[in-house]
Amino acid sequence: MLDYMNQGGSIMWIIGALSLIAAAIVVERIIFFHKASTDPEKLEAAFGKAVSAGDVKEAWRVVESSDSSMNRLFKVALTHWNICTEDMKLLTEQQIRREIYRWEKHVYILEMIGKIAPLLGLLGTVLGMVEMFQSLHIGGQISAATVTGGIWKALFTTVAGLTVAIPTIFVCGLLNSRIDSEDETLRRGADFLLREHIAAGGGKNGGTQK
């Protein structure tokens, strides 16, 4: 492996570093997505039951049972449960934007790597070809084996760049799809909160103290 990296030169090492960064981000995002996810229907049922019964302590227990994005949305709503419905709508929209920002964190770096890696590979190939033809010009006659070996080395960076870019772009697509799904889930959760808030009197019928 090190031999291949050395043959590709400095461009290969940069591509290798980008692959490690991409892998680290993917692992970190997978862990975050797992921690930030929850069963929305179960949460809504438990929260709705507690609010309908006027059991504020149980409502707090429900929203604090997890640190998922949905739980964080419900917690913010419960903290400000005594505000009017219009303000509640604005509050939940703001919280959704905050949560989606957390979900999108570092994904743009993956997108950049997916675009940059093949370009770096192409750059490495061009530089390799330039170096080879320069050697031909200086050295005069060179065997066909030497020429093909030089071309192989030059093309190796393109292969490496594409090898990094293709799975990175694919994973980006999966992550963005999951983010879109979470955005929709949070918006449905916000609609549920507004319905519960209106049913509870729009903040007129109780506080939010634990």
From TrEMBL:
Membrane topology term reads: Multi-pass membrane protein
Could you tell me the Gene Ontology terms of the biological process aspect for this record? protein import
Entry keywords, A to Z = Cell membrane, Cell projection, Cilium, Flagellum, Membrane, Protein transport, Transmembrane, Transmembrane helix, Transport
| GO cellular component terms given for this protein | plasma membrane
Where does the MotA/TolQ/ExbB proton channel domain start and stop, copy by copy?
67-185
The record ties this protein, via InterPro entries, to: ExbB/TolQ_transport, MotA_ExbB_proton_chnl
Protein family according to the UniProt entry: Belongs to the exbB/tolQ family.
Q: What's this protein's name?
A: Flagellar motor protein MotA
Organism equals Cloacibacillus porcorum
Q: What is the lineage of its organism?
A: Bacteria, Thermotogati, Synergistota, Synergistia, Synergistales
